[in-house]
Write a structure and sequence with these properties.
Distance between the termini: 59 Å
Strand content: 15-25%
Strand order of the largest sheet: 2-3-1-4
Largest sheet: 4 strands, antiparallel
Number of strands: 4
Number of helices: 3
Shape: elongated
Length: 113
């Protein structure tokens, strides 16, 4: 009887592990502490330029939020992250050097090209 209980517990643990693994590889769930939090969008009054940057290391919604918040923390910049494409599109209301944007993203823990 105890063997059946142990087997049942192991099967439940395996099922939970498989389910969370599938969510992780789809980019869902909080693989690195993400949860359901969504970064706020930042609206700029006068967009004078848009640039696209490749970002390596983003795997989930939490990563997307961190990169977006890093870009949004720059005065005059607003970022929209495309997680599946591995890019961030940065709108600017003033001239901002690429290095400033790259440094903010890299400070958040991601590699920027």
């Amino acid at each position: 009887m105890i063997d059946y209980i142990i087997i049942a517990v192991l099967l439940v643990l395996i099922a939970v592990g498989i389910r969370s693994g599938i969510k992780h590889f789809k980019g869902e769930g909080g693989c690195c502490g993400g949860g359901t939090y969504k970064a706020r969008k930042k609206k700029l009054d006068n967009v004078i330029d848009k640039r696209t940057f490749e970002v390596e290391g983003m795997t989930c919604q939490h990563c997307q939020n961190r990169v977006q918040e890093a870009v949004n923390s720059i005065d005059g910049a607003s970022g929209v992250v495309k997680l599946k494409r591995g890019i961030v599109v940065v709108s600017m209301s003033r001239k901002i050097e690429d290095e400033v944007i790259k440094n903010a993203i890299e400070k958040a823990g991601y590699k920027c090209k």
